[in-house]
């Protein structure tokens, strides 16, 4: 499927499910990694992750399109378009859009980085595993307010 086919598909879903026309651009964006799609408030355009179509099919992408169209139509109507707004939740349930997209198989492996550092309290010995380096002068122990010392873990070969 190309961008022109996606554009007609989004326009069709907008007319059938919302009874209103979609008058802006819809396109695929292969750089999206952790989201199924997104709506731009300034340009009113919609981008869809093509990996969702490849991995989960047209039904899942249609639910993602409905989700983004809820943002689109509510924002243009100057009503609650954010995820937390009751109007958004009600419209999403009415049209059958998905609240969350499914996780892509390759994106889940990217998030599981090993712990590389340990922060250890010098007073009580409490340990805090960390994936990134931390400025220990800014933080104290959450248990006893003691000072923290950072240790780098050995990397396995």
UniProtKB/TrEMBL annotation:
One of its GO terms (cellular component) is cytoplasm. Zn(2+) binds at residues 67, 71. InterPro entries: SprT-like_domain (IPR006640), SprT_Zn_ribbon (IPR035240), Uncharacterised_SprT-like (IPR023524). Binds 1 zinc ion. The keyword Disulfide bond does not apply. Its cofactor is Zn(2+). Pfam families: SprT-like, Zn_ribbon_SprT. Its main location: cytoplasm. Transmembrane segments: none annotated. Belongs to the SprT family. HAMAP family: SprT_like. This is Protein SprT-like.
